[in-house]
Amino acid sequence: MKTHGGGNDGGVAGAVVEFRTSRPEIFDFLLQEGFQVSFVDRCTIREFLCCQLALCGDYTEKNIQTIFLNSRPVDDVDAAVLRGDDRLALSAAMPGLVGATMRKRGFFAKMRHSISHDSAGGDDRAAGRGKRCLIQVKLFNLLARDLARDFLARGIFFPVERLCTLLGRRPVRFFADLNAVSVNGEPLDSPKEMEDRLRPLSGCVQLRLLGD
Amino acid sequence: MDRIIRIDVGAPGGPRVTEEGLGKYAGFGGRALTSAIVCAEVPPTCHPLGPENKLVIAPGLMAGSAASTSGRLSVGCKSPLTGGIKEANSGGQAAHYLGRLGIAAIVLEGEHNGSDLYKITVNTDGVKVEVDKSLALLPNYALCEKLKETCGDSVAVISIGPAGERKMSNSTIAVTDPEFRPSRHAGRGGVGAVMGSKGVKAIIVDPAGTKMRKPVDPEKFKAANRAFVEGLKRHGVTGQGLPVYGTNILTNVLNEAGGYPAYNFGQGQFDRAADISGETQAALEDERGGPGSSTHGCHRGCSIQCSGTYYDKDGNYLTKQPEYETVWAHGGNCGISDLDVVAKLDFLDDNYGFDTIEMGVSIGVAMEAGVIEFGDAEGAIRLVEEAGQGTPLGCILGAGAATVARCFGVERAPVVKGQAMPAYDPRAVKGIGVTYATSTQGADHTAGYAVAPNILKVGGDIDPLSPEGQADVSRNLQIATAALDSTGFCLFVAFAILDQQDTFDAMVETINAMHGLSLTGDDVVELGKTILRMERGFNASAGFTKEHDRLPSYFTREPLKPHNVVFDVPGEELDQVHAF
Ligand code: SF4
C-alpha cells in the first residue's frame, strides 16, 4: 500500500479518498465529529478563516456566531491565536439562553466568563509562525452544511476506523450522491466499496473533494 | 377571553361548574394569570395534594388569535415537587381552542372525595363533567385513542397519565398536538399530580363553532403580525437552525463548551455526543420519515416549527422529536448514546405522563447509586416501565430525583428546591447557575431565557464581557421571561426579538393591536416584575428563605472537567437577584 499525503499540507494519511459530489453537505456526520486540516501555525482565527480558507466578510461575521478554541468560547477572532493540535469548533448562532451565552461577544457572554477563551498571555506567535501543521476542526449545524465544500476541497484528515463505522451507518442515498470515488488513485466500481477498501487500514484517511 | 371557569370537584352532590368574569385578574393571561390566582387563592402552606390547592390552566393573552407562534399554555398550582409556586408551560392545540372559546382560565378546586374519575368537556354549549371510570390508569396515547371514538380528533385533550393519577411528584399534564397525539406536556413540577388529586383525568376542549378571535385593530394587527413572522423567518436561529435541527442543535455546542452534564453531572463532556446530536437526529428523522420529518410545529400557527417526528427503523411513528433536554437527560446524562433508546424513553414518559428532565435525572441518580449501570439502555427502559406501573421502585423514581437520592443515600442530586436541573452544567455556565438557584420555580432553564433584555434595558446597559453582574443579567432575564410567558408567545421567538429591534417592535405591536393597548417596553418589564414579586411572596409564605436560593453544595466543591471549575458565585450576589 502506497502512503499518500505528507508534503506541504502538514498531514500524513494512510490513504487518500477522492470523490465528486454535488452535495458535499452529506458529509456533515463527520464534520461535526471533528477532522484535521492543515494550516499555517500561529495565525489568528480570522487569518485562518479569511486568508487560509477564503471565508471572509459577511458570511464569517453573520453566520459563524459561536466559536470554541480548545472548548473555550471565543469572543475576539483577531486575538485568539491557533497553534498546531488545537481544536477549533465553529457553529451558527444557537437558540435559548445558553445558546445566546455561547455567542461571540453576545449579550450574555458574562454568564460563561470562567470558561471563555483568554487571548491574553502566552504571546509566542513569532516562535513557530509560518510552519504548516494540523489543527482539528469541528463544524456544527448549518456551518457543516455551508462549509462542507470549502473544507473537503482542501482535503481533510479523519481516523479511518471511525470513518468505516460511520460509513456503515449511512443510508443508501449517501452513496448514490457520490461519484468517481477513488482510493489511492484507484477508481472504485461502486462508492459502497469504500468501507471494505478502507477497513484494513489504520491511522487517518484524507478525504478530498475534486472539482468539476 | 373574559371568562374564568371554576370546577369545584368537592361540591355537595358532585362537581359544580361556575363561570365568572376576570374581575381583579383583568389584563392577565398565561403565567401572570395562573400565578395571580394561585397567590390570591391558595394558602402557601397547604399540602399540594390537599383540597386547598388549585390547578389553574390558562392560555396566554394572544391565544385564539392569528398571532404567529402564540399558542403556549400555562398550568399553575402549588408544586408537589418543589413545595413552591409552579408554572409549567406546554405547546399543543388546547391554548388556541380555549382562547377561541373565550376562556381565560379553567380552575380545578375543592376536595375530591371517593374514587370517581372525571372527564370534562368544554365547548360552545358550556362545560360538562362526567364520571368515566373506564379511563382509569389509561396511558395518554391509549386514552386519546379511546376519546377519539366519541369526540373525534378535531378537539384538543388535556390529560394525565397513570403518573398523575398516582399523584407522583414527577407527573405531567399532556396536551394533544395537531395530529391529536398527547405529545406536548406541561412537564415540570408535578402538575399532573394536582390534576390527579382533583380526580380529573381529561379535559376535552372542542372548538367546533368558534372562530379565530378578532383583533381590536385588524389592519394594524395584520401588518404587525406579518412583520413579526418575517422577522422570525429572517433570523438564523428561528428561520433556519431551529426548523432544521430542533432544540437538540444544542448538544454539540454544549458538549464542546464543556458544559454538557454527562453521567449525572459527573463531567462536562460526553464522548459520544455526536451520536445523539441534533444534526444526527434530524438526518435520521428525514431518512426514516422522508424529507421534512424533522420540521414540525407543536401547534398550528407556529412559524418556527422547532419540533419534528421520530420514526422507528421501519418508518412507524415512535414519538415526537425528542427535545434537547430529553436527549440529554436520557442520553448523555445516563451514558446512553442510542437515539432509538432515547426516543423510546421519550415515548414512555409521554405515555405515562412523566417529565423527561426529571425522569432522566432520576435515572442518572439511580445509576450513580448502582441500581443499574451508566449506559444500561435496557435497564433505563425497565425503570421507566416500573415507574409507569407504580411498582415500589417505580414510585421512588416517580417521586423525582431528590427523593431517589434520599432513598439510595446519594449526595449528588442535581436539584434546586427539589426540582432536577436541566441540561446545562452551572459550573461551566455560572449565569445559568444563578438562575437555577434563584428562580421561583426550582432549577429551570426556561426561567431565564434570552428575551431581549438589551432592548428592554431592564436595569441598564451591561458589558457582556465583564464577569461581574451575573445577578443583574439573571434578574433581567427572569423578569422578561415572566412577561413573555404571560402572552402565550413561545420563548423561542426570543432570539429574533433579541437581535432584531423591528421584530421586537412588531411583536409588541401585535399585542397592542389585538387588545387595543399601547404597551411599551416599560410596561412589559413592570408586568414581569409584578409576576415575580407575587411568586416570591408565595414562596416566602410557603417557608422558602434565601438559603433555598442556593445550588447543592457539591457544585461548589467538586470541579467539573474539562475546565475544572466549580460554582463560586457568592451567596450575597445570589441574594441580589430579586432585590428590585
Ligand atoms: S417554536 Fe417549537 S416549541 Fe415554540 S411554538 Fe413552535 S414548535 Fe412549539
Describe the structure.
The complex is a heterodimer of chains A (212) and B (580). Chain A has 212 residues and is of the alpha+beta class. Chain A has one domain. Chain A is built from nine helices and 14 strands. Chain A has helices at 28-31, 45-52, 57-63, 96-102, 125-128, 141-154, 160-168, 172-176, 194-198; strands at residues 4-5, 12-13, 15-20, 35-40, 43-44, 66-69, 72-73, 81-82, 87-91, 132-139, 156-159, 179-183, 186-187, 204-209. In chain A, the strands form four sheets. In chain A, strands 11-14-3-12-13 form a five-stranded mixed beta sheet. The longest helix of chain A has 14 residues, at 141-154. The radius of gyration of chain A is 18 Å and the shape is globular. By secondary structure, chain B is α+β, with helices and mostly antiparallel strands. Among the domains of chain B are: 3-205, 4-Layer Sandwich (Aldehyde Ferredoxin Oxidoreductase,  A, domain 1), CATH 3.60.9.10; 244-425, Aldehyde Ferredoxin Oxidoreductase Protein, subunit A, domain 2. Chain B has 23 helices and 16 strands. Residues 448-460 of chain B have low confidence and may be disordered. Chains A and B meet through β7, α4 and α6 of A and α7, α8, α9, α16 and α18 of B. The structure holds iron/sulfur cluster (SF4). The site of iron/sulfur cluster has 11 residues of chain B, from loops. Iron/sulfur cluster (SF4) binds at residues 69, 91, 297-298, 302, 304-307, 490, 492 of chain B.
* List of distinct ligands in this structure: iron/sulfur cluster
Distance between the termini of chain A: 28 Å
Q: How many helix segments of chain B?
A: 23
Q: Globular, elongated, flat, extended or rod-shaped: what is the shape of chain B?
A: globular
Secondary structure blueprint with pairings:
The complex is a heterodimer of chains A (212) and B (580).
Chain A: E1 4-5, E2 12-13, E3 15-20, H1 28-31, E4 35-40, E5 43-44, H2 45-52, H3 57-63, E6 66-69, E7 72-73, E8 81-82, E9 87-91, H4 96-102, H5 125-128, E10 132-139, H6 141-154, E11 156-159, H7 160-168, H8 172-176, E12 179-183, E13 186-187, H9 194-198, E14 204-209
Parallel strand pairs in A: 3-14, 9-10
Antiparallel strand pairs in A: 1-2, 3-12, 4-10, 5-8, 6-7, 6-9, 11-14, 12-13
Chain B: E1 3-8, E2 16-21, H1 30-41, E3 55-59, E4 73-78, E5 85-90, H2 94-100, E6 103-109, E7 118-123, E8 126-131, H3 140-151, E9 156-159, H4 162-165, E10 173-175, E11 184-186, H5 191-197, E12 200-205, H6 218-234, H7 236-245, H8 250-257, H9 278-289, E13 309-311, E14 317-320, H10 324-330, H11 339-352, H12 356-368, H13 377-389, H14 392-397, H15 401-408, E15 415-416, E16 419-420, H16 430-438, H17 453-456, H18 470-484, H19 494-499, H20 501-515, H21 521-541, H22 554-557, H23 571-574
Parallel strand pairs in B: 1-6, 7-12
Antiparallel strand pairs in B: 1-2, 3-4, 3-6, 4-5, 7-8, 9-10, 9-12, 10-11, 13-14, 15-16
The structure holds iron/sulfur cluster.
Iron/sulfur cluster is lined by residues 69, 91, 297-298, 302, 304-307, 490, 492 of chain B.
